[in-house]
Amino acid sequence: MGGELRIGSVRLAHPFIQAALSGYSDLAMRRIARMHGASYALNEVVLDRSVNQKGRLRDRVLHVASDDHPVGGQLMGSCPDDFAPAARALADAGYDVIDINFGCPVRKVLGRCRGGYLLSQPAAALEIVARVLDAVGRDKPVTVKMRRGMDLSAQSERDFFAILDGAFSLGVAGVTVHGRTVAQRYVGPSCWDFLSRVKRFAGQRVVLGSGDLFSAEACIAMMERTGVDGVTIARGAIGNPWIFSACLALSSGAGRVDPPTVAAQRRTLAAHFDESVRVHGAALAGRLMRKFGIKYSELHPGGCAVRDAFIAVKTPVDFNDVLERWYNHDRGRLRVVGRRGPGDLVAAGAT
Known about the structure:
alpha/beta; TIM Barrel; 2 domains; eight-stranded parallel beta barrel; two-stranded antiparallel sheet
């Protein structure tokens, strides 16, 4: 269950993966995820045109750190002509896997015929896959991120399987499937029964599952119930990098791992902040870490009060003040028992 997974030529130590998260999975977050056991992490999704145009964003995206492997670069766009040079640039920069986003449900993205919109356009989607494979497929694995379809209609399901089957036939090394439709966005449960159908259809080909993975128990349950080869953990990993070590422990038979104490949370928060400073500089890190702190607060016994304290953060000094006030040694023995979903905490206790 927790053994080696291969995505083309890339070998992963285990099948618990840090998903691409727009606005979150930067180098700092990926480093923290790896510190806690993630075997593979994907960069934030980037537009193909942003990679093709000179500028600071391109420079940042094309910098791959030596300690950030294996790493996936995820591309999103609408024009097949733009995908190939962008994929080649990512491959040349050192990304180990090139991932194509056909799953983003954000309205602005859909309105520009990107992301999940392409699930309604099988011919265009497969043309993009073909162009990327032509550009990098000889030396880098190519994967695709999908949702269940645009909606729950029969036509949408036919389009989904046309893209899935076509992508595998063209030569992709794996597909990640989120169990919600684009229309659902993040409302309602992820349909794991659909993931089971996809895996049966795919056979020995690599299928990764996504959706409603907010605990190690959920990750293991998805794999057991659906047969998917691995899981990509998205929102469930924001502010909770411990989910990776918990998955490893549970899959190995070691059992359930106690959630992190407040002292352990402080150490990880401080390390995450330091990594953010290294990547972005102190001024920007102070602002960026506010949103991460808000998510980390869900694991703190102080919950809402800690969240409010992070919301007020504007500078590195503010961030450190929150750590001193809420994550001090007097609170170090307290721990939160766990969380079942976003914002859904179980009662706090003491170690």
